[in-house]
Amino acid sequence: MRRGLFCFSFLVLFLCGFNAVSGQENTNVLQNILFGLFNNGTDENQIGTLLNLLSLGPTGQNNNSGVTGLISSLTQLTRLFGGLPDLSALLTGNNNASALGNDTTNSLNSILENLLDLLPGNAVESLLTDRFPNLSNLDDISQSELLVLVTGVVLQASGVGETCRNDVGTILAGIMESSDWAIRMIDAMGKPESGFAEGNLKWLGDYQECVGIKSVTDGKELFTGKYCKIDLPLTDILPASADLGTPNFEIGTCTASSCSANDFVNFFVSIQQILLNGTILVQPEVSCREDKPLTTDLVICICLLAMLVAAIIIGTLYDIFAVQMKTKVDTKETEQATGDISRQNSSKISLYKPKNTFYGIPDAYLNGAYMSHEADDEQVDKLGNETKTADIENEINQDKRDVAIPPKEDNNMEGEQKSTAESVLMAFSVYSNGVKILNTHQASGSLGSINGIRFLSMAWVILGHTYFFCQGYDSNFFFHFFTSLDKWSFMAIAYATVSVDSFFAISGILVAYLTLKELEKVGGARKLNWFMFYFHRFWRLTPSYMLVLMVGTVVLPYVLNGPMWTNDDIPFMGECRKTWWTNLLYINNYVKTDQMCMAWTWYLANDMQFYIISPLILLPIFYNVIAGVVSCMVFLTATTVAAGVVAYSHRYPVQSYLFQYAPPPNDDDYAENLYIPSYARFGPYIVGLFTGYMLHRLKCKCRIPKIANLTCWLLALALCCVCVYSPYSKGDSHIFTPRESAAFFALHRTGWAVAVCWIVFACSTGHGGWINEVLSWKAFVPLGRLTYSAYLIHPLVMIVFYMSRNTPTYFSIYEVICLLLQIYLFLGHLCLSYGIGFVVSLVFESPMMGLEKTIFKRGRK
């Protein structure tokens, strides 16, 4: 019964609105449209009668008056629809729709005969008497007033709230009167866009224009504009072979601030039920931009951040006025005391080992780094004692003895030993922390090439994520992606996941290199501070990790807005309120993977798990080389077999992007079963551990003939190309079988790590040539220190950018690959990620490291 009223009201709304906007001259056009629609037994006289009843006929008159006259007109209308086909059959493509005309007529007659019973309290009469209390004849109702009236009936029948109904009526009246604010509201709504054939399913409209609209009548503000986005899933409509993934048809609307998302949902569901005989073809998802209330977690977060800012301000001011200014005075006095002696001996200090040659290849740069800020070598960080940079410190100490600087008298020993309070304040100093982070000097014995590899790998990660994180905020991603797969050069993006394996290999190298050095220094495993071995790693990673998690979950939803921004938690952060503890324990790659918080942090969970079990390889290899090699082989075999068996048993194809050609997998759980579990990613870490052992054992000195060196470099390059470009296939010309895919999954990550480890080994032993010169560039030192913070931050940078845009991102090859032109998206994300990462490291990561040193007296001689 209710559906019939809605169907009739919707028809009246369309006809009245068309006439009000287009004018009386369009009557003939409407007449032709109606005659074409009701072409099963309806003649032109009936159409004329219909137009006359709706005040659209040539006379422009309606002789019915009052509520009784309106109901009488409705009854007459039903008699015109003898040939009206079933609308649901029309929409579903039923060619026998005309056969259903009689049933439709009977249904409408039955509905309209009981019209007054459809709405509670005689709603039609109530609407007329409430809006037109002095109404005596329908001729007194204007077209715009009638349109508002019918709209109210339609919206009420759809379950729309009263305030929203009234404001929508005001909007329609404003359109009829050509009010500026009403025209702007129509202008702000989404309209059909070009590029539909390329997958552009987003008609977003103008968000900024909508939210800036104010409805003003007689100097009184009635309501403001509210932007709502309607998502219509198309998975049940499009054919299964459509190359669109899971598309949504998104339409931006601008409505009154009194309307809610539920009002839109009720309206669209009612339309489908009426037109499709009770069937709901698409369940709309509506999100409206609302002012978020101030929540308890936001207040707590703001208080914590305010305390952090206060500590930073106090620590920085203390550092500048109480430490740095005093240091300058002391330095000036020292220079006056030393005179020319200091200048004569300063030439003895050298930051680099003198170059010598073997087979014409210079020694590697071993100018290490500021270890307490490295992203992956913090696992050891001297393990409770600062490792002396012997070569440089010996020269500096010798110079001090030659200069014979007299010690300053200080009863409190302030120059030699800081108090705990002072150390805490200094830990939060932006000045001191900034100097340490941006310092480009590297300590003796460090592996300089790792900084370059770390930064370039991070840039590759950001390049790949620049492309893939745009899904859902684009106008042609899928079309462009599948088109680009025909180009072999695009494999560097499609299969960029090996960039993460570079980090695993680097981490393994540094863990082995520094831990074995410390084991040798302290005299074995029994004397090593194992508590600090694990605690320092946890403390190094977790505070910054939890800070980004807190800000991304609690603060960011309040900060930005846009047509693609919602009132819900931002993507990848929505589950953090429930599953944050899995991130804190570094088990989020196994526990609740279907509700993963900060999905990209699966890498941190893997790296922590590898670090925890690394002594099972390091201790055997420290005491007995054969035992260590056996341990490495056992773990390497286990992870290789595990990856291959899982890939083959689930039939996961390497070329999953070419799903129209590749064998289909048994399930869609590739990420949970093969991509993020540590048992499938351990290979690169093991190769890194063994490489670190070799560098420690050889003291970064190894004689390699030129031919052998060149051969190894060519093999490493070939291995990299095989891992990235071998899955390329133009169409179905080179599709892997299930067994080939399993072998690829089992071996390619370890193979990539072998190539990366060779680069580090060759550069560290003096066989890197110009490649070592590039990777050991001083500028990579601070960038390498910021890699961890940039890794945490960069997905949020991308999400905020894409969701805040007023228009979807359009992809062309020049927006993704940095070849000849300026690549704004990639370079912008790269710079912003490192810039914000610098701030995070400056105000939180470095202070936490300083507090650790203060608490555990680390570095105290």
Number of helices: 35
Name the overall outline: globular
Fraction of residues in helix: 55-70%
- Please summarize the sheet with the most strands: 5 strands, mixed
What separation lies between the terminal Cα atoms? 88 Å
What radius of gyration results from the CA coordinates? 36 Å
Supply the helix-strand structural class. Answer: mainly alpha
**Could you tell me the number of beta strands?**
7
Poorly predicted sequence stretches spanning 5 or more consecutive residues: 1-43, 53-102, 104-121, 239-244, 346-416, 816-821
Q: Average the pLDDT over all residues and give the rounded result.
A: 75
**Percentage beta strand:** under 5%
Short recap of the structure:
By secondary structure, this protein is mainly α.
